[in-house]
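Hi team,

As requested, here is the filled-out complex form for the iron/sulfur cluster run. I kept the field names the same as last time so the parser does not choke. Let me know if anything looks off before we queue the next batch.

— J.
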Amino acid sequence: MLPYVDEFRNTSSCAALATTIAANMKTESSVTLMEVCGTHTMSIHRHGIKQLLPSNVRLLSGPGCPVCVTPNNFIDRAIAIARIPGTIITTFGDMIRVPGSSSSLEKVRAAGADVRVVSSSLEALRIAQQEKGSQVVLLGVGFETTAPTVAASIVEADRLRVTNYFVLAAHKVIPPALKLLSGGVIAVDGFICPAHVSAIIGSRAYGFLPKDFGKACVITGFEPLDILQGVLMLMNQITSGAPRLEVQYDRVVRPEGNRVALDLLDEVFELSDSEWRGMGSLPLSGLRMKERYAHRDAERMIEVIVEPPHEPKGCICGSVIQGLKDPPECKLFGTVCTPVNPIGACMVSGEGTCAAWFKYASGRTGNNRVTSDDSVEMQGMSETL
Ligand code: SF4
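And here is what came back:
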């Protein structure tokens, strides 16, 4: 373990911050904070952050897991494309086991389809260069963090004149989901805003949260000290009645974001309405390829018949994603649905809320641990999106 990471996981510093949060809690009424990043969700559960906080501070998980928010009709389309002879589907690891309406990419691969896990979009492009007789399709899933790398592969494919490389894109952007949640049925007092995404889009992108919705708002890093400090900043905003935008993760996030990545996004993609699992179609919440890159768009270029989508019976992923329900409220949680036999996307993904609850037994053991032990990673998990 590098000393640098150790410092952000120092047990006594975390305990001291938790004590300060409790002492600064000037209100008896409960406070609800929501994180909208799957990596935050995992970190909160991994390090027992919930158990360190006063009982009237509630942490909810929102739609921060890109695999989880990707609707079944996207997975069904990917499966239909995978079944076309001469097609290679390339995907980041978590997507392969996500159940679609009646199958998964893992199952169609077992039945003979060519589905390959890649660790970058450029690896998918390399496969297209090597397999000239096949059409190679990358599943473009993820938020503003992943989308620039996919955009880069599309620009590079044109530069290299690789004609058999396509992207099936389901990229989402975070601010519209935050808007929906701010005016939604759950009374969220403040948001732990995402770290990775904010490094790309910049802190200015969240100005509407305090201004239009009166929500406290802190962009927070991923380590336990980051999160506890972010919670303290949020609590200070809330108890003083002065919601505003603050950046705890200022060692990475700039007001203007990452110009190179934003320019790449703007070159290739444009905003479009997009469907989120459990949340329906949100206006201008997705990224679709601009007309000049239509020849790379698998949805436009590869015609398939896609079955009508449906959700697994009994799965409440849609409610879990919005913070309306906790995973143990699902009758299938931990019995029928486990990481080995996942019924819904939230149990498959390495950033899924159900997976986090299952893995760290949150709320069941009451363990107040701050640990750096990641040795019990579940099969097929990655945190790349
Ligand atoms: Fe869906 Fe499984 Fe989570 Fe239930 S426990 S909501 S079935 S992913």
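Two things worth flagging: The pocket of iron/sulfur cluster is lined by residues 315-317, 320, 327, 330, 332-333, 337, 343-344, 346-347, 354 (CB under 6 Å). Residues 19 and 53 are 8 Å apart (CA to CA).

Thanks,
J.
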